[in-house]
Amino acid sequence: MFDFDASIIVHIAALLYVVGFMIREQLVLRLVILAGSMCYLAYYYFAMNPPLWDAMAWTTITSLANSYIIVQLILDRTTWNMSPEMRDLYSVFDTMSPGEFRRLVAAASWETGVGTTEITREGAQVNDLYYVTEGPIKITKQNSSFELPGKSFIGEVAFFLDTKASATVELGETAKFLRWNKAELEKLQQKDPGIRAALHNILNKDMAAKVAQSMGDAAIA
Closest by alpha carbon to 159, among 194, 102, 199, 132? Predict the structure, then answer.
């Protein structure tokens, strides 16, 4: 009758660890290491008499910590638990990973306009960056005005260049928007360079769209 050699389990576990540490992709690496840890647990229990309870306890603790990070990595890459509103908003920030997007939105406050809300005044200091999900938005610059329906950033020029507001912006009473404190957003970008790169790319596109809109309005006028 075949006599199973339990030492094979520890060799498989060690091999999985070696393979795992050679993988650069974080999620795959951690999954392989987790499989190796499960093999070590099996070895400590079945091959030892009595089982190595202390070793099993610490292997279980490290496996749980590894599993927690695995879940975080999966959440960072998926949108499955986003609400329809968040999915719609993510379409604007789709150059970010879902995890980066969640961290960015978590740093913002969701607000609704009360009457006509002036959020920037031309020539005044700007302390916040805004994203208006629902307008209307009225932009006035040097006595020239135009309107946007929504889905637009406000205060991005001042955010980029650390200057005063280049225009006066008023939101209608039905407007909904996100507000980021400029100082807090800078801290977030310093902690997460991926958010910085993606956000700057998104803001560049938004500014280009605004320039095209204002030039088109001027041509019509």
Answer: 199
